[in-house]
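Hey everyone, long-time lurker, first post.

I ran two proteins through the pipeline my lab uses and got sequence/structure pairs for each. Pasting them in order. The first:
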Amino acid sequence: MKILIYSYNYHPEPIGIAPLMTELAEGLVRRGHQVRVVTGMPNYPQRRIYEGYRGKLYVTEELNGVKIQRCYVWVRPKPGFMDRVLLESSFVSTSFVQALNGWRPDAILLTSPPLPACVPATVVKWIYRCPVVLNLQDVLPEAAIVTGLLRNKFLVRIFESLERFAYRNADRISAIADGFVDNLLKKGVDPQKIALIPNWVDTNFIHPLPKEPNGFRDEYDLNGKFVVLYSGNIALTQGLETLVQAASFLVDVPDIAVVIVGEGRALEVLQRLRERWEATNVKLLPFQPRERLPEMLSAANVGMVMQKSSVIAINMPSKIQVLLASGLPIVASVPEDGTAAKAVRNSGGGLVVPPEDPYALAQAIRELYDNPDRTTALGQQSRQFAIDNYSFEEALKRYEVLFAELVS
């Protein structure tokens, strides 16, 4: 089959949807399919177009058998609301040209967000008369409303109309968690349209490595420490200030080190909080190259999942599968009734504490530090659960079958 993946994020962006879509595209190529990807110029998480791509309207390249067709997007380091509107509008217009600049696809996979991309993808579907699978990574516009990004009532109605348009014109909707399925059913989506395919993790790439010797521990003076690691996006929904404040309650245990790996501008805010709360046990480190991810994860004793209490309940961070595959016990500071909490509990590989409660978070970390046998057992359960439930090969097979059914 010839498959067009319509995704705003792609390699070399290190976190979020980009690694998932890169693995899916390359996996489909390995199975004998032709794949081209329409995507934006790489800019995430710094929100600045990477060197080598700046000042260009279109770039076409090939990597591991995948044809990557990049297009200009409006990006600003500290985006306001209008910047976000311009970002999504620019991708809608420039990506449409790239989508038509190549062979006719047999099927299209569209990732959302961004939600407005459903418009050009649907037009391409009509032109080529091919099916569209909508890969739902977040539920919009609810997520934007809850986090305060979308407040204008007129724009809310526009985005709700876009959402209905996307669901109506998708031939299938791949949902990444049970909560997403429930949300779709409540909105009247035909259950026959919905396919539950959880996000995956490459358990051959992400796997436990020795804690010592470990290059990441050596480089950042972490040998002999009980390392609590958060790595990933630092934005409105994460609430990393809770982790920094929790660390300040653990300074009496010199062996505990809280390590936060993220983008530079976001770390500057946490640096000020670290100084205010005298959390001297917090290390703030820049993003690591993706090839170093297994080593960095294996340097930790505990992996963190952070969400604010206002986060929409069905939000499912992709980092959960990665932490499980690395064999780390998880401490999840997330809403009690949310999809993330359910996923961590079902895995049997972690603890769930109330969000935005630094005292409860510090107590959970201390509990694992004081009980090394339990920490080890949770980590072993994490790894096994990832192998059994989040296999990349299984997800790849299910997408391949889904495409084949629609094409036939």
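...and the second, right after it:
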Amino acid sequence: MESVQAIKQRFGIIGNSETLNRAIEKAIQVAPTDISVLVTGESGVGKESIPKIIHQLSHRKHNKYIAVNCGAIPEGTIDSELFGHEKGSFTGATQTREGYFEVADGGTIFLDEVGELPLTTQVRLLRVLENGEFIKVGSSKVQKTDVRIVAATNANMFEAIKKEQFREDLYYRLSTVDIHLPPLRERQEDIHLLFRKFASDFALKYKMPTIKLTDDAIQILLKHRWSGNVRQLRNIAEQISVLEQNRTISAETLTGYLPTSGSNLPAVIKHTKSDSDFSSEREILYKVLFDMKSDLNDLKKLTMELMKKGNTKDVEEEHPGLIQKIYGSNDETEDYEEAIEDSKVLSIPEHGKATKEIVNTQDKYHFAEEIQEEETLSLHDKELELIKKSLERHNGKRKLAAEELGISERTLYRKIKQYDL
């Protein structure tokens, strides 16, 4: 069995990353068998090297090796390409044609971008994997083939299965052995090495001196995200080799060839929303209305206390929390006190006055009752809905629900009893 280093030299693979070496080791180990292999990894990582290694180290190496890009073949003709067709089976079929599975009998087929296969073709491929049988388009004759299948994809196969774009049974048949190739950003020790190799190759190809990077440029190179992986790095090296007159490349020059987006700096991304996150505009509106109603009720309570006691200082001492909740910070509380002293909106009766005067004074605030009648028409159902949703989100835990709604647990308990929840 050849060593990993010998295989890398033989197939022109550059890099000393541990994850890359592990992928090559798996390819070497699985090559002598006929097990189906699925190669996964992002676009541009070099997935096409793995099936070549597997074929060349297998007992099939003297037979055909065919690479098929499944994403490049139109859906209407892919069955014909893979399995062949009979003369006259469809418009344009002027003669019988052998498909790849028939031509590669005894050899290896590499199905690149296998996730792009139509569902009908996936059914045919599953049959080939299970018993080596296939039927040409337009034929009724079952044919046998002995083909080793190595597939590759850059798609998330579990997502495709979930969306019913790929058959689950076919996935498990293809991925008997799964070989994952890491993206270039996870092989930082290989980035500069690959760049130097590409720069040397292009200098030889275009007969010009080799480009070299300054220390600052090397750091820029290592920090870039490389969304296109090795393919993108190779293209950048070729561009700079051809276009730059100065063969020493500074950080500023290199930055001009890199996309503006693509930094490899860490970022925190929130994928899921919290259960208590009022992302719906309607729920936000309900929440605002609910808070307004709560504040209005507190204001009514404070007004009634003022009317009964007639002494603002006593009310302030007894209800500091309520005043703070309604008027906010200390500055706002001072404004409130000044408003109480200067304003004559509230005519507080003396304790010795007749009950009739108190009734007349209270009549000045009849609008409070009118507001209550109006809000029962608009906010009663909204308040009930908010309480129900909050209790559901917190599995009936009143303390958490009360904190989310901005009311005390006792108030929430009273409302639960009121609404018979």
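Reply from user beta_strand_b:
Welcome! Quick read of the second one: The first strand starts at residue 37 and ends at 40. Confidence is low (pLDDT under 50) at residues 343-377.
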